[in-house]
């Protein structure tokens, strides 16, 4: 049996891995709430199983991001040994760690935390691998479609994670979510070994027609690499680090993640703490907002061709980077000032609708458009720098909201500290936008001549990116 569109199977496997990875990130914190860890070790009625200090709990939850922020290293290693092999190794490691969490946590909390860090480190290549799959397996505009699909799967995983994990933990205990997610990742590893060769031409189930297209594609790439444009295809890490726009992307991504993470990690806690919103209602809210983000990716992606026909390619991409994060920064600062859940929901809906631009003309797709061949490594650098926000936010939040409970105005001060925390996050977002504007203006000539814009399409020609026109 031969498939005429075998590459879609490859796209599905990559997308499903991204979904499971995003979904699994909620399991550790929800498992601790759901009975893995005692809330009060001195209370004999506490039904939790493990007596962990607050520091150990924080390490277990945050260790994934400590490893994830080092993805520049793991991505660089993947470029050396190949993304196909690296992805299979990463998937196997993630599956083993996830399946053994119920055992390792009872043996040693420190060991369990270290393994979570390892999972974050190897998992750091997954999004970069999606770039490589988009380039290697996609024809024409399919590569951009794959990058946008990545966004859909991330938002789907982040939305269904708290919802489904919460239900599973409540009904079947905290262990079952680790087993289900680990089993799904293990299944993906088996499918990768069976269905995902390093070279598309090695696929046995691919139709002759599709294989002929890949043969032409690879001939064109080889011809282009050996020709005058060869230096535009594969460059060293040192050369990549000399690109000024790379640092604009790093600062911008850190700023936009400083706006992004509070919604998923801090806003639910704030709603529960100060507005008495129940956890079940918060899980439904998170699911709904993620669906909004998914729909927005599709809508913005659909509007992009029309907008490109009316304005310059670069103008639209810069607009999709700057304006949404500006508005989202203001929204994050306003959430605690809105006064109620009802008033906050419209703000959060707008915020999530604008998030879709990241994967439809914004930073993530722009990185692919600028340099498909080196995009995976560039994204490893940019996302690694941006993810620093992921573990700084809890630290800053803890420091800013710490108030002596003996103070007579404790409640008032505690609430105000939270307000200032959200204002700070919004301020960092606006600072990132300002920095990006300065960078875009300062490197305007470079943006018009991008150093590595050559890309091979499926029409046997080497074409320059639209931005160079």
Please tell me about this protein's structure.
With 469 residues, the chain is mostly helical. 75% of the residues lie in helices and 1% in strands. The protein has helices at 6-24, 27-36, 54-68, 71-81, 83-107, 109-123, 126-137, 142-172, 175-195, 208-226, 237-241, 244-265, 267-275, 279-310, 313-334, 341-355, 363-370, 375-386, 388-400, 410-442, 444-448; strands spanning 455-456, 462-463. A two-stranded antiparallel sheet has the order 1-2. Helix 3 (54-68) runs parallel beside helix 6 (109-123) and helix 14 runs parallel beside helix 16. The chain is globular, with a radius of gyration of 23 Å. The model is unreliable at 449-469 (pLDDT under 50).
Write the layout of secondary structure elements.
Layout (H helix, E strand, L loop, with lengths): L5 H19 L2 H10 L17 H15 L2 H11 L1 H25 L1 H15 L2 H12 L4 H31 L2 H21 L12 H19 L10 H5 L2 H22 L1 H9 L3 H32 L2 H22 L6 H15 L7 H8 L4 H12 L1 H13 L9 H33 L1 H5 L6 E2 L5 E2 L6
Antiparallel strand pairs: 1-2
Helix pairs in contact: 1-7, 1-8, 1-9, 2-8, 3-6, 4-5, 4-18, 5-6, 5-9, 7-8, 7-18, 8-14, 8-17, 12-15, 12-18, 12-19, 12-20, 14-16, 15-16, 15-20, 17-18
């Amino acid at each position: 049996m031969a498939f005429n569109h075998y590459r879609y199977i490859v796209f599905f496997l990559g997308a499903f891995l991204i979904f499971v990875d995003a979904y699994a990130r909620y399991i550790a914190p929800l498992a601790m709430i759901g009975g893995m860890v005692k809330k009060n070790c001195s209370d004999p009625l506490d039904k939790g199983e493990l007596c962990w200090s607050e520091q150990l709990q924080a390490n277990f939850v945050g260790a994934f991001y400590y490893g994830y922020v080092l993805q520049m290293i793991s991505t660089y290693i993947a470029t050396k040994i190949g993304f196909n092999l690296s992805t299979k190794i990463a998937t196997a490691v993630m599956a083993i760690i996830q399946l053994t969490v119920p055992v390792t946590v009872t043996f040693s909390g420190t060991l369990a935390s270290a393994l979570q860090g390892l999972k974050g480190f190897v998992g750091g290549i997954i999004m970069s691998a999606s770039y490589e799959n988009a380039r290697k397996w996609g024809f024409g505009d399919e590569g951009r479609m794959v990058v946008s699909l990545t966004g859909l799967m991330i938002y789907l995983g982040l939305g269904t994670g708290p919802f489904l994990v919460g239900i599973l933990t409540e009904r079947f205990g905290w262990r079952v979510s680790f087993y289900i997610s680990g089993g799904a990742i293990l299944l993906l590893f088996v499918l990768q070994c069976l269905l995902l060769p390093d070279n598309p031409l090695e696929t046995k189930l691919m139709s002759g027609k599709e294989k002929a297209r890949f043969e032409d594609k690879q001939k064109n790439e080889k011809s282009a690499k050996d020709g005058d444009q060869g230096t535009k295809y594969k460059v060293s890490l040192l050369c990549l680090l000399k690109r000024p726009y790379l640092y604009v992307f790093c600062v911008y991504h850190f700023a936009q993640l400083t706006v992004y993470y509070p919604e998923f990690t801090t806003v639910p806690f704030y709603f529960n703490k100060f507005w008495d919103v129940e956890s079940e209602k918060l899980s439904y809210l998170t699911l709904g907002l993620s669906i909004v983000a998914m729909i927005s990716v599709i809508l913005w992606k659909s509007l992009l061709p029309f907008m490109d026909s009316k304005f310059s390619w670069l103008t639209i991409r810069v607009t999709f980077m700057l304006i949404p994060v500006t508005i989202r920064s203001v929204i994050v600062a306003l959430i605690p000032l809105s006064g109620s859940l009802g008033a906050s929901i419209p703000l959060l809906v707008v915020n999530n609708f604008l998030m879709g631009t990241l994967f439809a003309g914004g930073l993530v797709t722009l990185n692919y458009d600028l340099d498909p061949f080196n995009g995976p490594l560039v994204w490893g650098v940019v996302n690694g720098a941006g993810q620093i926000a992921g573990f700084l936010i809890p630290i800053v939040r803890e420091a800013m909201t710490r108030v002596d409970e003996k103070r007579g105005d404790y409640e008032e001060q505690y609430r105000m500290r939270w307000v200032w925390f959200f204002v700070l996050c919004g301020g960092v977002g606006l600072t990132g936008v300002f920095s990006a504007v300065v960078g875009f203006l300062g490197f305007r000539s470079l943006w018009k001549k991008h150093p590595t814009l050559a890309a091979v399409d499926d029409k046997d020609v080497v074409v320059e990116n639209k931005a160079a026109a």
